[in-house]
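Page 47, continued from p. 46.
Same chain as before, 451 aa.
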Amino acid sequence: MENESDRNDQSSVNHPSLLDRFLHVFSDVRTGESVTLVLMLTNIFLLLLCYYVIKTIREPLILVEGGAIGRSYSAAGQALILMVFIPLYCLFYRRVDRFVMIIGVTLFFVINIELFSLAVKAKVPHIGVIFFIWVGFFSVTIIAQFWSYANDIYSKKTGNRLFPIIGIGMTAGAPAGTLVAGHLFSIGIPPHLMLHISAVLLLVSLGLYVLVNRREKRSEEIKPVKQSFAEGSGFALVFKSRYISLIALLIVLLNIVNSTGEYILSKLATNRAAELLAQNLITNEGSYLGQFYGSYFFWVNIFAVLLQAFAVSRIVKYGGLRWTLLILPFVALGSYGIIAAGAGFTVVRWAKTAENTGDYSIMNTARQLLWLPTSREEKYKAKQAVDTFFFRMGDVLSAALVFIGTAWLSLEVTGFAKLNILFVVIWIVVAFLILREHKKLKSDESNVERH
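Result:
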């Protein structure tokens, strides 16, 4: 598919604008690409801002209600919902064009947020667990939808150049969201009012989709937006392709490691809160946890923004997909090695900060680049299945791991860290297999182009 960005790759008679020259500092931005690029960057920024306000609200609700173990078990419920959602999502996509789908999904989540605002205000029983399950479902769906759209409007060549800079919006929205949420917590704004802010941000994001869609429609050489997808679910497409099946396995492993790591951190954080409360150094456990996670998420994402803005595009350019895909598992290997050695709460926090920094910047970009050589149907249907269901399956397996480790094996923090080391080693092996399949796809594309 050829679009405005592709034509600028081929030739350009226009001089670069001031915006073009500014964005070129961060990545290889060509003349005429900047406006759509900034709209896309701003859109993903707002989506992450919305999500992290919601996510920061989520943590004290679930931890006060269910503790670290309850948090881990609740994550498993997200996968059960997605087993029903993915077939419905694919069915809807076969009947409407991509933009109608984006509007429908976004408005659905706006209504959900407003209903949760009412439920939180009314203190509905078990709302912390229900909200936790919904947040995981919401976050992966809304972000996967954005990247499916980005993969569709940009070619592989253009996406390799521009995805790292679009990722700046993603990593910048996260610390902005935690900063806003942390400030609102500190001045006593109740969570149900904070949820209204998230709903407004989601509506503004929808407005940006409208602007991008209008620009794409004005491009005469773009194919019509209306899609005609074949019968079959995203799950069928995943298992049909060895390449996509490996991506799905990678995502499961990545999330097992990350979710188990989050259990380790939340376990130590709740223990620390209990100690401070017993010593009368704090008066409210929920407020302490809210402020801790606000600070934790903020610093993770500040570092991720810096890495995304000044390093990721260069890693992609000079190291290619290989380095982009392999850096995070080796960082995780070091982090859990330190934790397994018996590091304390502060060290664990910064080890997890390093891991999540790489995840939110380098690894997130790698995950999007993996989809560029796939078909349009795979981008919308298989990617939604991988980025939602298989992503949350990592939570299910992590929850099972936490249950077995706590109920049967009586594992401490160091024991869970050692298990994570094993999963990271498997993750590295799968990454090398994906790189081999990706090389085959590139070779097949080159053969088709020559003929």
